[in-house]
Amino acid sequence: MERLESWKLGLERLRSAQPADWAEAGRLVAEIARMSTDTMLRQAAEQALPVLRQAMSNDDHSVTVAAQRRIGVVLEVVHDLAAPRFGRRSAMPKKLSSEDRARKMLGLPLAVQLTCDDINQAYRRAAKGTHPDQGGSAQAFIDLAAARDILIHPGAHKDA
């Protein structure tokens, strides 16, 4: 993160400098291309290098504008990587209710109204592989039966 901040400051300084120092820009972007662990940033820097090298040797206005744009692209990627992340992105997912766990166990969709026939068909399908006579474990079969009961009689079971 510290390296990103120093790259960001260097790129912003180079971008705002009136007579642009293309040699310094090329050195900084080459360092970014060599040392960055982020593929997007590395690609942006590698694509900017040829244009910056051309701007070092050529004083053409169109090449200068293209080099400034390339520095802007690299700076934009650095800003995205260095920006603080807000919200609940790293929060743990909420716990499923017992009914939702039962639906997942039987392979049923979470947000669809189910009939008893739908539940029983899903139970039969899942029980074929988990039945003790078919090589499954007894506990898995008992869990499937409990999941079916929870879905058929939803009010009778307390949410855990």
Automatic annotation (TrEMBL):
SUPFAM superfamilies in UniProt: Chaperone J-domain
InterPro entries: DnaJ_domain, J_dom_sf
Ranges of residues in domain J: 101-160
Superkingdom: Bacteria
UniProt xrefs under PROSITE patterns: DNAJ_2
Full protein name: J domain-containing protein
